[in-house]
Amino acid sequence: MLIGGVGGACYMDSFFAHIGDTVESEQRSSFMGKVVSFSEIGSITSPIIAGVFVNYISLTAAFHFNLALVSLAILIQLYMGYNLTRRTKKSRLPN
What we know:
88% of the residues lie in helices and 0% in strands.
């Protein structure tokens, strides 16, 4: 639990730093509020969904569902990183 807690805390810090770098300052507080709200909703609903999967489908259903979500998150991060890299390279070109 300790290692997972430290890893999660480090992940959230780097996530907020990434938001600070990419979102404009006028929209940053609204965006962060929405992200934190969705995070809290996920913290409440995910154990309920996992319990339903385990009770009604199978013990490994929650694992497979999380595996699909993690794969989707990795694809989104790769796409966002690619777009951020392209945008950064374009902004360095002389006018």
